[in-house]
Write a structure and sequence with these properties.
This protein has 192 residues and is of the alpha/beta class. The protein is built from 6 helices and 7 strands.
């Protein structure tokens, strides 16, 4: 009898406190203006510089990438989900490169949060990543998010004619259907 009363009391407490706890936490948000100001060291490989449309040897921002839509994959070399997702993100990159209407207009940049350039290079080699990966060793990206970053996080941005960025989508964790996700993001970003 005491157990039933205790369980009932816990359930009542959870029901009455649930809305307060939910209201206290803002949904995960991205400050696109802050994100646009963060600079990264450029990749060393000429093919990756060409893919991004940036100059060698100069730090760059996401808004300088030559594309209509940019998918920023925030990963960590130590994240098991990122490791499992790596072949799937490679597949996503290949799908974008094979689709004539999206090739060159929709680009991917991987950012290794908390990872040194050495760690990012290990991740690239281990998972045969073909698209550009850069390091965010000092967690600079954290400044652009309302909550601590979880990996992997996929941020999709649409670029305006004035190089301004608009948030299209944020996805945290595993992407179940890559093709469906790309179609949805392309539709949100008004890419056909």
């Amino acid at each position: 009898m005491k157990t039933k009363v205790l369980v009932f009391a816990i359930i009542c407490a959870l029901i009455s406190w649930g809305p307060v706890v939910a209201a206290a936490k803002d949904p995960f948000q991205v400050d696109v203006d802050k994100l646009a100001q963060i600079s990264f060291e450029p990749p060393e490989r000429p093919d990756q510089l060409a893919y991004l449309g940036i100059s060698p040897g100069k730090d760059f921002t996401v808004s300088q990438i030559k594309a209509d839509v940019i998918l920023v994959e925030i990963f960590s070399m130590y994240c098991p989900i990122c490791q499992r997702e790596a072949p799937r993100v490679n597949e996503m990159y290949q799908m974008l490169e094979k689709e004539p209407s999206l090739r060159g207009r929709f680009k991917i940049l991987g950012v290794g949060t908390g990872n040194t350039p050495f760690e990012v290079e290990i991740f690239r080699k281990k998972f045969l990543v073909a698209f550009p990966l850069v390091s965010d060793e000092n967690y600079t990206l954290e400044r652009a998010f309302s909550d601590r970053l979880r990996t992997p996080t996929f941020v999709v941005l649409k670029k305006g004619k004035d190089d301004s960025l608009t948030l299209v989508d944020v996805h945290i964790g595993h992407i179940k259907d890559i093709g469906k996700y790309l179609r949805e993001v392309a539709a949100k970003g008004k890419l056909k």
